[in-house]
Amino acid sequence: MVILCVFLFRTTPERAYGDFDIYYAASQNFLDLKPIYIFHGGSEEFKYSPLFAFLFSPLTWLLKTVALYVWNGLCGIFFILTLYLLFSIKNLSLKEVQWKEFLLMLLLTAFVARYLIYHIKIGQVNILIGFLLMLMTYCFLKKRHDFLVAMPLAASLMIKLFPLLFVAYFFLRGRFKIVFYALLCIGGFLLLPLLYTGIDQCFQYTREWVQLLRQTPATMIYSPKNNSLLSFYSWLFIVRHEPYAIFEYFDIKTTISLTTYLSWIGTCLGLFSVWFLNKRRLDIDMAGLFILAVIFNPLAYKELFYLQIVPYFFALYFIFYEKVSKVWKYLVSFGVGISFLVSNSIKSAYLPDAILWKFLEYRPLLWGALLLFLSLLFIKFLDDKFA
Description:
- The protein is mainly alpha-helical.
- 67% of the residues lie in helices and 0% in strands.
């Protein structure tokens, strides 16, 4: 209830233009059968599938301010349900909460607090994606029913495409039924909007969606606010050699080089391959995929790093509950602590813009996420030691 109240009371209708406004406007156009995919150079665009506009459209029947409160209230509920699923996976009781459970929940909320506040401010959608992927993880680890795993996975792909990494994981693990059911659900989800639009308009929206996704400009990659691996390599090989001030990254006309792409793809394949070396810990497998899906995403802005709530949970569970040497727990605690400090080492309110943007060039959120990934990798290979 406290978390839900924070979501509602932190909602400010007088805030600056945000993502919620884009969803609201696109859904209004959807109901009017007008274009919902309008290219604006990468920003202030509706980039999600027609299904999202279809499901979001009932909120447009409300006044915009009321709809914003409803949306943030729903996001608060999705966050609470994510916590519930995390605790349920490890059979942690929520009826008689002991100090460890309370501290675990408190730390999880604290670790992602900055991302939660930012989501409330702009009305972002990543809390919903996090819940869908967490529901997929819960069904995979506890229910072990392929169709139940595939449905939330397919639903998350209707919002953003980075969950494709989970599809690749299931395919390489030989879980072909999950992949098949996911593709089946995607086909069904793409056809759902035709219940309102008709088949021709539905196909038109789908074509426009695919075209818009292919038009992402390089300036979105060059932005120092983008903390993806691709953005880091674009800075390393291109941006820092350009005769522009950091504030002028949007004026850079240079296209992304082959060296940048190859470095990004090579690093992604390397990290993904390492993650397959130990097959015993499915829970840690899923936690690591949450990190990799974020940093592999070409557009990994601050709000996307909220998804670290899942790997943080499994790392903290190892520290609090698993019966291993205290030395191993101290090492994991050190990795998690440094990861958190690196990710939260800057606050835009405390630094002048020139210093802040210079520091952002080095993508601190990326390195914080990689440190957390290394902590999980340590846990994963530690399992071999005690197997």
